[in-house]
Each structure stands twice: as C-alpha cells, then as structure tokens.
Amino acid sequence: MSFFKSPTFKYVKNLLIGLGASVVMIGALGKLNSTSWGGMMITVGLLVEAFLFFLLGVLGPEKDYYWEKLYPGLDEYSANIASLTDGPTTGSSHKALNADVVENKLGGMLTELQSMSKSLGSLKALQEVDFTQTGDQLKAMNNFYSRMNDAMNSLNASVEDTKQYQAQMSSLSKNLTSLNAVYGNILSAYNVKN
User: Fold this and answer.
1) What number of H helices and E strands is found in the chain?
2) Number of domains in the chain
C-alpha cells in the first residue's frame, strides 16, 4: 500500500488523468470534424478515464494537510519526525523547530482567522437584509412593463388603422378626381349645346 502513497504513483496518476482527458478532447474534436479516428480516440480516452476514476474510487481520497511547513521532513513517507516538545530527533538530520517560528506561524493563522470572522460577519449581515420589498418592486415593474407592452400593441394597431385610413383617403381622392373630370366633361358638353 505504500506504493500508492508514493510521489511517483501520484505523479503517474495525475499524468494518466491528464493524458486520458486530452485523448478524449482530441477524439471529440475528430468526431466533430467527422474524421475516421475520432470515435476510436473518444473510446480509448474514456476507457482510460473510466479505469482511473475506478482506481481513484477504490483507493479513496488522501488528506491534504500541509503540516510539512511546521514539521520539516514530513513530506517524506518514512521520515521519523519528533513532536514539537521533544526537540531534535536522535540520528535525524532535520532541525528542531524554533519556538519563535511556531509562534509567528500561529500568529499569522490567528490573523487569518480574525479576517475570516469579519468576512463571515459581513455575510451574516447580508443574510439579515429584508428583501420582501424588493419582491413588491419587482411586481410593480412587471406590471409597468405589461402596461407598456399593451400600450405599444395599441399604438401599433393604431398605426395600422392610420395606414388603412390613408389608403382609403387616397382611393377617395382618386375617385373624386375622376368624378370631377366626368362632371367637367358633362358641363363642357352642356355648354357646347347651349
């Protein structure tokens, strides 16, 4: 089981995941472009990804604590690390942690926790804001937009009516011109006979 915790296995695992994903993407590109190799590339890439996800499911996740910053040498799987109060490890080449370094790091962590507390307080204040009036305002705006839409539809209908009215007036004007011409001819004929 120590092989699965080794940096080599972690590197190979990440490499295979990346390569499998890239093969899937290249296969998808080939499939989109209707190439003959597109389907095969997608199949190969998905099989590699399925195997890796199966392997990751069987092995389970690893905890990612970065304690090696406080305990130098902790990132080596078989390192013999002493606790902070024990001092240096006998036979180990690692230096003991200085109490000032630990205190500075803990002080930095305390500052970060205080900053996070302030941020969470701001989020809580936002949570307590009353948004009930906002809903009423949204309903009023929706009502306004509905009425505006109705008015625009009415205006559009009146524009159509105006166009029809213009067409009828134009037709009436032509008919009156024709009628005037006929009346003028009748008058001329009547004047000629008299």
Assistant:
1) 4, 0
2) 3
DSSP symbol at 95: P
Among 129, 144, 177, the domain boundary falls at 129
Domain span at residue 16? 2-96
Residue with tokens 């036979």: 91
CB 48 within 8 A of CB 20: yes
Retrieve residue 95's tokens: 């230096």
Last residue of a domain, one of 107, 129, 151: 129
Q: Classify residue 31 by burial, with Cβ atoms within 10 Å: 0-12, 13-18, 19+.
A: middle
Q: What is the distance between the alpha carbons of residues 181 and 29, in angstroms, rounded to a whole number?
A: 77
Average pLDDT per consecutive 10 residues, the chain (194 residues; last block may be shorter): 77 83 84 86 83 79 67 67 54 53 77 82 73 78 87 85 88 89 85 76
Which tokens go with 179?
């009628």
**What pTM does this model have?**
0.31
Same domain, residue pair 56 and 111: no
Are residues 85 and 19 part of one domain?
yes
